[in-house]
Design a protein that fits this description.
223 residues; alpha/beta; TIM Barrel; eight-stranded parallel barrel; 42% helix; globular
Length: 223
């Protein structure tokens, strides 16, 4: 049967899935992430597309300590090696970031691997077949972070909920107001950057997400 520790990790992918902004000041990054965690973020993804390698390592290490304080999974965007270096809980792979199999070989069986599937169910089925622990769909709404992102509709969440049994993460322009329809369609987690970290009151913004009615998923799969 699936390792119980890993099952618990997979089922932890729910609620507010906060993704960090490109913040160059590590102290400021820790300050705003702490507010999001105090507001109820359930998962944190470290994502910084512009920082140098040394700064990324510094920030990821600091976030590892902070997320352990809150017992929240830390996911590293795109970088399997960085996830290894800081003993993160997992990695999130985009379309150009390598295979699930390669990431699993590097990270082992207990770490989370998530995959961006955009608006394509075929990618989701292939990711799950390879051993992905969760899949992400989007962009569901216009996104300031990725203005040219492909568009997804809630229908794909409904289809995915019928066809695959891993947590579903919705991403792309999501707010606490428009996210409710995605939860109704089957999303287990709502990913947000600007709606949380761009808010005047980050803790309150995170709490608004945390207070939404998220569906649960208890996996009983053998792998």
């Amino acid at each position: 049967m699936m390792n119980l520790e890993r099952t618990a990790r997979i089922n932890s992918v729910n609620g507010l899935y906060a993704i960090t902004p490109d913040e160059p000041d590590t102290a400021e990054l820790l300050r705003i992430v702490r507010l999001a965690l105090l507001g109820g973020a359930h998962v944190l993804q470290y994502r910084n597309k512009v920082a140098a390698e040394g700064l990324r390592l510094e920030q990821a290490r600091a976030l590892r300590v902070l997320t352990q304080e809150f017992s929240v999974p830390l996911i590293i965007n795109d970088d399997v090696l960085l996830a290894q270096q800081v003993d993160a809980d997992g990695v999130h792979l985009g379309g150009e970031d390598g295979s699930v199999a390669a990431a699993r070989a590097s990270l082992g069986s207990k770490r989370l691997i998530g995959v961006s599937c955009y608006n394509r169910m075929a990618l989701a089925h292939e990711a799950v077949l390879q051993g992905a622990d969760y899949v992400a769909f989007g962009s569901f709404f216009a996104s300031a972070v990725k203005p040219d992102a492909v568009v997804a509709t809630p229908d794909i969440l409904q289809q995915a909920r019928r066809e695959i049994a891993v947590p579903l993460v919705a991403i792309g322009g999501i707010t606490a107001l428009n996210g409710a329809q995605l939860l109704e369609a089957g999303a287990n987690a709502l990913a947000a950057i600007s709606a949380v970290f761009g808010a005047t009151d980050i803790q309150s913004a995170a709490r608004q997400f945390a207070n939404l009615n998220y569906p649960e998923i208890i996996l009983k799969l053998a792998r």
